[in-house]
Structure formats: C-alpha cells, structure tokens
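Annex B, item 7. Sequence and structure tokens for protein A, then protein B.
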Amino acid sequence: MAERRFDLIVFDWDGTLMDSTATIVAAIQAACADLGLPVPDREQASHVIGLGLNDALHTAVPALDPADYPRMVERYRHHYFARDEALVLFDGARALIERLGGAGYGLAVATGKSRAGLDRAFAVSGLGALFHGSRTADETFSKPNPAMLLELIDEFAVAPERTLMIGDTTHDLLMAQNAGTPAVGVSYGAHPVDVLEALAPLGLVHSMTELDAWLTANA
C-alpha cells in the first residue's frame, strides 16, 4: 500500500461541496436590484464567491457606498436564505467525505461564509459531524490571506506540505499558495478552467467523480 501523502484535507464549501454558485449569484444580483444599484453579470458576481461577504460586495458592486453595506448584506441574506434550504450537495460529495473520514484523514472546511452561515449549511446538508475543524471569514482574514489554512494547520498539528486545499476558485488556490500548501482545483464551481489552470494547482478535476479518483490515487 502506498504511503499516505496528506494528513489534513481542507475543503472550500460553496461551489466545491455544495452546488450553490447559481444561488449566490442570484442573491447578489437581486440585492443590487433592491438597492437600485448596477446589477453585476454572472461572471462578475461569481468571481467574488469564496471571499468574505464585505470583500465580495466591495468587489462585485464597486458603486456601493460603504454606509449602505449593512442594507446590502441584509438584502443579500434575505434572498440567499429564501433559497438555501433547497440547495444540494454535488453528487458524490457525501460519499467522498465519509470515505475520507473513514480512512483516517483529518477533514476541515475553509470558507468565505460566516460562522452562522456555515453552521446552517452543515445542518441543512447533514455533513457537519463529518468534519473535524473549520474556519469562516468572520473568524479570521478572508481568502486569499492564508490565515484560515495556517490556523487549521496549527490546530491539527500537521505540516503545510501534508495539508491539501480543495476549492473551486482562484481565491482558494491563492490562499493555498500563500500558506505553502498543495491544492487541487475543481472546475465545476464558480471560476472557469483557464484561470484555475493559470495558478498551476497540483491537480485540476472536472467532477466529483474525478476528485474522488484523484484523491484515491494521490492523497
């Protein structure tokens, strides 16, 4: 049996484990419409997925007055929460997490969600009990700052090179680079293949089935 390469596997949430990209984009666009602001197109709105909410809104809606951030956040959450209980995990995500946990890997989540948002997602999906740790954007610095990964590395007492980050955005891959950890990009989420490829991740997969196969062969 080949020697295990990684001790800790860290997953992004939205667009990596949960099929939520379209819902997030729609919520950003609807919140902008509510406030009479220019509505970003899908590419603009999906680019900010993975960032902390304030950073995401600043990037997606540059015309937003900082004084209006609380109102914008309220409208975004209104539209998102109206749909989030209908969100589903990508096919095969639950089985993958169960398999990795059963094989003895440390499992964690690093997400641009708030703690309340991730706890809600854990409850809705039923995956919360399968993860051993997590970090959210309101607990530390937003991606691509390496703080989430570095804090998890410290919590699990593992080496950066034995930690693998898996995510669907350049924010995830850049966070991993900044933390000195390998990363795998998934192309079925928010960011297109070419921008993920440009960051030269250790692996780039196009479905949950491919991710499972890559981890079986390489982790």
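Protein B:
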Amino acid sequence: MLGDYLSWADAVCLGVSRETALQLRRRFERLRRPGFAQVAVLQPLVCGTGTCLACALETSRGPRLICQEGPIFDLQILMQG
C-alpha cells in the first residue's frame, strides 16, 4: 500500500520500529533523496543548550545534538548501513 502513495506524495510520516524502517529503506532505496523522509527524535532535553551532551545522537555523519540540531533529522543520516 505504501508504494502506491510514494509516487506522488510530498512526504510520508510513519511510526515504525527501526527494523521496519530499515526494510522500507531497502525496498524504496531508489526514491530516497535528501529531505524525502524526516524523523522526529523525541527524548527529554536536560539543558537545551548542548552543554551536557545528554542528547547526543550518533548519526552517519557523526554525533548530533538533538537540542541544537534537531529534533527533526533527515532519515538518511540516521539510518546507517
């Protein structure tokens, strides 16, 4: 069903497990481009300034601070491998 929407959708929002996200990534690899899919990473923010590094998130481009660089991230940098 998702494949029917991807040909015309500007964006797709899904709430799925990491395993399901990896399966979808492999299946629709040809449609991916920067900005096509974004992820909201939700977690409590301790300081909100990046000083404490409690919200550091490992990405394919190195660590990112959720409080400073997020909470919205491109799916391409979060999905490794």
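Comment on protein B: Residues 3 and 28 are 8 Å apart (CA to CA).
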